[in-house]
Design a protein that fits this description.
homodimer; 375 residues; alpha+beta; 60s Ribosomal Protein L30, Chain: A; Phosphoribosyl-aminoimidazole Synthetase, Chain A, domain 2; 7-stranded mixed beta sheet; 6-stranded mixed beta sheet; 10 helices; globular; disordered N terminus; phosphoribosylamine-glycine ligase activity (chains A, B); PurM-like_N_sf (chains A, B); ligase (chains A, B); PurM-like_C_sf (chains A, B); ATP-binding (chains A, B)
Chain lengths: 375, 375
């Protein structure tokens, strides 16, 4: 892990080299998590209480009596930088897709705990009022945002559109979304209490890179002679492939709830790639027997970064954007319902008693708890 | 309104000159509001519905049956730039106060609709992992965030701490907070349905500039020979005065609810200064007979910017950070309860039948609907 700022196309490229140093962020995260946990005691004064198991999960859950309340704020990350560069190269605006990506970051996390997303708030912080001068881009952002809300059946409540010169870089925009939902009936809560041996692991298809791993993707573009315009398949550039909008998974989880399928746990496969399958603290073995097809853009990235399977599956979603842990007898139905909702799905493996580990049999990979320190 | 980039100390300084061009933002806002309003139809499918009167208010409200759900996301704005500069000048970290400011932006907006804030989520987007290297500053942010949650009796659910090099400027941080609360009992809803002639206007004291008007404050600092270290009172620098944390008003609104005081409407006095008193769409005349004392830092700013009262009261809070519209017979008690909760308060005026206008009698000011186009 050296601090070189230039890498040749023959050198493997790690996530740290791509610019994110988790070692510096993590001590703050730990302090913040500790301080946050200490505030749960305020809820009983209002007659409510937190669901302690949701601490460390993707969304925070409070028991408000007749149902649970779930909430979250999520950031798009650096995918907008790819959209900006592609707009410069092609003249097209990619912000409708970017809007969907931003909502997906929030909604796909919120639904992991069993919530129906109800309200989304927009956080669009531009580097200056000038950002909004490009009316086509601004309209794409608005229309894409609304379209994603329509897909998720969520109300767009409002939001903030500050111009933050001096904080956000000129010509850039910092995009985030907050989302509030409810878990009703309360039996839909899926923070892992019922997760256990025998559960099937159903993987839902990703549309590509989604919105994680973009720092790496951007670094790779710098090493390509044609950059984002490199064709990774006939007629498909690297940039266009990267900008495929993130799949919204709430239509699947809502359809499953309507059909009475019980989700014991869910994992949104974002940063840390498949290591996210190890998210729950229980000591369980997750055995994957079938690996979904890898989207062309992720195959290309892994090749270009000289990643072996271990590194690729620890960093990128590799075709699986979301994992559902369901009772074995509901696995086949889960796949059918997901497909009917427009998202490809596979029964990929199962949960077993055993040490905490993820075994990806077709690739002979093993990840253990040491590979994922999220809490 | 010229586009000069330099202004001498003798020239008046308008908000537009200070760097925010609302004309560019507003068409996007209008398009976004229209698209957002069109998504309300998704809620009935979940068995719920929006409270239409909350569109255009500071927080969005959904009727979820036993109570209302309110949610919001809010940005700190550019106050962190003042904290950064003061840290450079004094070596001290101001981020505990900045944390309170950020939470206040969200909580003080959420409570306007009658909500009890329950959960806050942190959005801390740094210009790079390096931001977190300054452990003292990072700890101040964490501890200040927790302390503000403690004051508001709110649970800190979690949040996002992305490192966004290329989007957020190096060495800077983009701070925001989302907040979710409930309105219970439902009679606490204060979106203005009962606002009307005869209501008293109670103003709650601000602690200073709060977190609005900072672009102007920063421009003024550039014109001062001693900048932020200019003493505005013996022993109090301009920078320190600006960085007084925003007052958190939820302890007041919660105490009022406990005491059975009915709030007919509330206005969080932020951007647009006292014009926010005209926020509700009803045609009503708001007559102010008593003007609260002006904090030294705001008096100093108005002087330095060569603002007359009209411009000062249209831009800054001028000592009133929050307005409560209550039945006249509860006005005196409202003041008592606010003071008991640690926030100074005054019965400042009343609501009358008449054209939509704000009359500030002691200063002979009149603002009409044309002066405030927020919706």
């Amino acid at each position: 892990m050296t601090a070189t700022s230039h890498t040749s196309a023959d050198t493997p490229l790690s996530y740290e080299q791509a610019g994110v140093n988790y070692d510096l962020i993590d001590p703050l995260k730990v302090a913040a998590q500790r301080a946050a946990a200490a505030t749960a005691g305020h809820l009983p004064a209002h007659g409510f209480q937190e669901v302690p198991a949701s601490r460390g999960e993707s969304a925070y859950v409070v028991d408000v009596g007749p149902f649970y309340l779930a909430s979250i704020v999520e950031c798009l990350g650096s995918k907008a930088l790819v959209a900006d560069e592609m707009q410069r190269l092609t003249g097209r605006s990619y912000y409708a897709g970017i809007a969907q990506d931003t909502i997906a970051m929030a909604v796909n996390d919120l639904i992991t705990v069993g919530a129906t997303p109800l309200v989304v708030q927009a956080y669009w912080a531009a580097g200056g009022s000038e950002w909004f001068k490009d009316a086509e881009r601004a309209q794409a952002l608005v229309q894409g945002w609304k379209a994603a809300c329509d897909v998720c059946g969520v109300a767009w409540g409002g939001g903030e559109t500050p111009a933050l010169a001096g904080i956000v870089e000129a010509g850039r925009i910092d995009l985030a979304a907050s989302c509030t939902g409810i878990i009703s009936p309360k039996t839909r809560l899926s923070v892992g209490d019922d997760l256990g041996p025998g559960d099937a692991i159903v993987l839902l298809a990703s549309s590509g890179i989604h919105a994680n791993g973009l720092s790496l993707a951007r670094k790779l573009a710098e090493r390509l002679p044609d950059g984002y315009l490199t064709e990774i398949e006939p007629g498909l550039t690297y940039g266009d492939a990267l900008l495929a909008p993130t799949t919204l998974y709430s239509p699947v989880t809502e359809a499953l709830a309507s059909a009475g399928v019980k989700l014991n746990y869910c994992a949104n496969i974002t940063g840390h790639g498949w290591r996210k399958l190890l998210r729950h603290p229980k000591a369980l073995t997750y055995r994957i027997r079938n690996v979904p097809p890898v989207p062309a853009v992720l195959k290309f990235m892994a090749q270009q970064a000289r990643h072996d399977d271990r590194e690729a599956y620890s960093t990128l979603n590799m075709g699986a954007g979301f994992a559902l842990f369901v009772p074995a007898e509901q696995a086949a139905r889960t796949v059918e319902i997901a497909r009917a909702a427009g998202v490809d799905a596979w029964v990929a493996g199962s949960v077993e008693a055993g040490p905490k580990q993820l075994l990806v049999e077709p690739l002979s990979l093993r990840f253990s708890d040491d590979d994922l320190q999220l809490r």
